[in-house]
Amino acid sequence: MTAALIDGKAIAKDLRERISGAVGPLEAALGRKPGLAVVLVGEDPASQVYVRNKAKLTRAVGMESFEHRLAADTPQAEVEALIRQLNEDETVDGILLQLPLPDGLDANAAIALIDPEKDVDGLTEVNAGRIVLGKQGLVPCTPQGSVILAKSHLPDLSGLNAVVIGRSILVGKPLALLLQSENATVTMAHSRTKDLAEVCRSADILCAAVGRPEMVRGDWIKPGATIIDVGINRIEAEDGTAKLVGDVAFDEAKEVAGAITPVPGGVGPMTIACLLRNTLLAAARRAGQPDPQ
Ligand code: NDP
Known about the structure:
NADP(+) binds at residues 166-168, 232. GO terms for molecular function: methenyltetrahydrofolate cyclohydrolase activity; methylenetetrahydrofolate dehydrogenase (NADP+) activity. This is Bifunctional protein FolD. Pathway: One-carbon metabolism; tetrahydrofolate interconversion. Belongs to the tetrahydrofolate dehydrogenase/cyclohydrolase family. By secondary structure, the chain is of the alpha/beta class. It has 2 domains: 32-116, Rossmann fold (3-Layer(aba) Sandwich), CATH 3.40.50; 141-268, Rossmann fold, CATH 3.40.50. Helix content is 41%, strand content 16%. The strands form 3 sheets. Strands 1-11-8-7-5-6 form a 6-stranded parallel beta sheet. Strands 3-2-4 form a 3-stranded parallel beta sheet, with helices on both faces. Helix 2 (45-60) links the parallel strand 2 and strand 3 (64-70). The chain starts with a strand and ends in a 7-residue tail after the last helix. The model has no long low-confidence stretch (mean pLDDT 97). Bound molecules: NADPH dihydro-nicotinamide-adenine-dinucleotide phosphate. Residues 142, 165-168, 170-172, 189-193, 196, 209-212, 230-233, 267-268, 271 line the site of NADPH dihydro-nicotinamide-adenine-dinucleotide phosphate. NADPH dihydro-nicotinamide-adenine-dinucleotide phosphate binds at residues 142, 165-168, 170-172, 189-193, 196, 209-212, 230-233, 267-268, 271.
């Protein structure tokens, strides 16, 4: 059997098109474009690529992109002053602090200052608490995108067994909570889990967010399961070039699973699309408008 491919690139493009369609009416209501501010501190090459990409896609859906680039040796107080200023700026609906920050800066202290209504990464304590309480908030982008991909193949997750490997604040924990709110029965596995392969074999939906190249093997997978591979790992290919792989051994898994996300082209594109979605939601909610569909 060969699994169906869950095409994150195409699903993300659809989502961006829907966002783009909702921006016009919201702009008319607000009297300005929704705006996303991205703060990049330092010269980390991967972060620079992400920030450039985010800005490009933000403009492509018709929203305003504000980029703030600070030197790597910027003092904490200056980063925090910028966040306070963006909190007050009425033209800014979403604030994203690109992580990781250079050594010597305290990311948690900076994130804690972001106005929860503009926290489009969903990282503040207020938004984390809202997920736990099942209240409306801004949901972290990667978990949100992962659930959209799972539901593109399995529209009703109710009663299904879901296993999430990884319990990070950014991905694993919120993903487990979101799947639970979709009425899946969720197991959260991590580095201390005993007999991980056996736990994984119980999963109708298996989400891997670990950061270990191709850790999940074909014989860990229940036949027909839906696999969401969040991992992005850079490894050396046989010919010596660099290539990206997920946390799941794709070639083995596709022979057993019912559906699987590729890496690249799976969860990755959804993360940025969901960031744009959160910016749209933040803009609408701040203006007292209904959530655009
Ligand atoms: P973290 O390093 O913060 O968390 C990794 C988690 O995996 C931890 O909970 C850890 O357990 C668990 N883990 C580590 N080793 C094992 C093991 N041998 N068996 C079982 N569990 C293990 O990573 P993130 O959550 O930030 O990211 C996970 C992956 O997702 C990375 O590859 C990252 O690049 C990718 N990612 C992709 C995104 C996208 O847009 N597609 C966005 C964000 C991340 P413990 O808690 O016990 O230490």
